[in-house]
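Continued from yesterday's entry.
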Amino acid sequence: MGFQDEMKQMFLRIAAGDVEPVEWETWWNSNRLKLEETLTRGDQGRIMPALWSANYYWMTKTQGGVAYYFHTQGRPVKTSGYYEEKAQEEEIRDRQKAMEAYHRKTASVRRSWEEYLEKHPTESISFDWKSLLGTPPGQKPAKAFSYKNARTIEQWKECGEELKLRLKENLQAKIAPVTKAYGMKKAGPKTFVRERNGLVSRIQFIGYFRGGGYEAIICYLCPIYAIQYGILGVPGHVSQGEYFQKMHNGWGVIEYGGEAVDAAAVESINGKFDDILTFLADGMLPEWQKIDSLETYFAKERRDYLKATEKGPNDPRTGRPMWDLDAEEKPDPWRADSYLSGVWNLLTGKEEEGYARLEECVRHNSDYMKDHLKEFPNACNDPRDAIAVMYRNAQLFLETKEISDAQERQNAIRETYEEVCRFMRYYHGLAKKTERS
């Protein structure tokens, strides 16, 4: 048997999924010179990419290159799904190992946070959220469409109305019950809020700007006086981990309204809301429930834990972090963290540190706000203009610095806090429209 016949036999075995990665690597290395003489550079690159290593993911690439080789030879071959299945198993296993290493790395700060929580227990919520998964009770039968993609204005309208109906069904059947179990109330058709001990939690579905479904979901927990920006997170593996990534994968099924919402689409929408429900009920909401006061929110143990979990482990396939919330020690562009911590410093008696942070926030945004307020004089009262609202709040707190008497200053800080919180309840959707000077 000549080398070309031997090579083609090996390629056929790869197409059938009969060659393991180590065997293939050994055979290739043993015949490298002959292969370079026999194959074109393009075939070599497709069959044995430069970054190839002995695993099933790269064997799928090799198999694809082999299939292309036979296709160009006028001899198409059927390929086995063996390598792809093994690659999926391999990826799951490698990701699990990476996550185990991540949890070991963050174990010490997690223990400190858990010990803090043991000393500051909160009410536990028992709710069978898994019973909400699947088809919403009483869901209307799927509509039959004579087309797949909307072409006319009437078809766009029909698709949009059907999509909104399916979103509403799922929102009411899955999201509303679990948020209610955690004490949240509706602040709109697709917004849920809660106030507890100086903290606000909010879940909001943002409508797609072209009139389709939901473009995104915004979730945040923060002090009432704060805006939804800055150090407001939960651990990275909760906010950006597996549940989050699964929730966002294929999000378009509940976003765009240009396709027929037939039986298959309805099933996909139901499944996507299952992903959203899982992210909230098995991740975000229980994590929020642990934080029942400003003291816990600002606890050093919590901040240390958040810092340690900002960057995830490297993805075994790409080599890049699975998530990366690290700002690389750079201050946030709005100085919202300075405002957030500065007010807390004032409330806890650390006035020098608090005023310094508030001054940084106001100084950093002053040039922008000077021009901005000329164009939008009422921006500081507009909940859609977060930076203007924060700037005005920081100004109000900073004005108390001019009071010389310590007791009067503390009273003024507390009064300012109450006044700011009164407006911010409107900002967060906890109260009706509130005006301020």
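--- second protein ---
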Amino acid sequence: MKTHFFTLFLPSLLLICMMGCNYNSTSHQTHTSYKLNNNIVGNDRDTHGCISSAGYQWSELQQQCIRSFELPLQLLNQEKTFGAYVFFTADTSKAEVFSKEGNSVLIKNTANEFIPQSKSSYDIILKKINNSWILEMPNDKIFYKEEKKH
């Protein structure tokens, strides 16, 4: 009786297990390859072709993808939790500001002040006061300031 049970039951059990394992591995492979194809690093290009996961964003003034956090002029908010980064054209007639609030192209108003090139909901002014650059809103509220390195 025991021999008859094992000769009939054991092969059936092994067959069911093998079918289940084969089904799961095929299903898992398909699911995994689908996830990998959608989550490839660098597969997140914007409309200009900049790869945001690598820190790149479009610069209107430079007409290319840049990493704004590598720009030489870096400003910090009061809490020192966010940065704003500034690019000046070679002739210093324009400046481009990159921050969490948005990007803005500014034009030179005076030797120490840049104002928005065009009106937008994000109107900021870039000023140099006491040898330090600041970003402020039109209501004179400073929200980013250059930190001098000692």
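The longest helix spans residues 2-38. The chain has two domains: 1-39, 52-146. Will compare against the first tomorrow.
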